[in-house]
Amino acid sequence: MAAPIRLLGTEGCHLCKEAEALLRAALKHREPRLTVEIIDIIDDPPLYERFGTKIPVIQISTLDPPLTWPFDSGEIEAYLNLFSSS
User: Fold this and answer.
1) Which of 16, 11, 28 has the alpha carbon at shortest distance from 77?
2) Rounded to two decimals, what is the model's pTM?
3) In what order do the strands lie in the sheet with 67-68?
4) CATH number of the domain that 25 lies in?
5) DSSP of the chain
6) Burial of 48 (0-12, 13-18, 19+ CB in 10 A)
7) CB burial readout 26-47, b (16+ within 10 A) else e
């Protein structure tokens, strides 16, 4: 079963769009396929309170802490590798 990866952000966030492109590029050749769930933190008050000033955020449920902005493709790969080895 593919593990969901949550990308936390909000509409109109240009950094969130950049993060989504970086994340999708990092996932393109990975097996098993991992799914990306886009979460708008405006719709989730607890997420907004926790991450409102830190978006975009990449979060895999089994890893803590999540990866918060700023990050680059190398840091995304390292974060995904943590998941693969857990």
Assistant:
1) 28
2) 0.89
3) 35-40, 4-9, 57-60, 67-68
4) 3.40.30.10
5) -PPEEEEEE-TT-HHHHHHHHHHHHHHTT-SS--EEEEEEGGG-HHHHHHHTTT-SEEEETT-SS-EESS--HHHHHHHHHHHHH-
6) middle
7) beeeeeeebeeeebebeeeeeb
Total domain count, the chain: 1
Domain extent, residue 23, equals 4-85
Q: pLDDT tens, position by position, for the chain (86 residues)?
A: 456 899 999 999 999 999 999 999 999 988 777 789 999 999 999 999 999 999 999 999 867 899 999 999 999 999 998 877 76
Q: Give 24: exposed, middle or buried? Use CB within 10 Å, 0-12, 13-18, 19+.
A: exposed
How many residues would you count in the chain? 86
Integer Cα distance of 19 and 57 in angstroms: 8
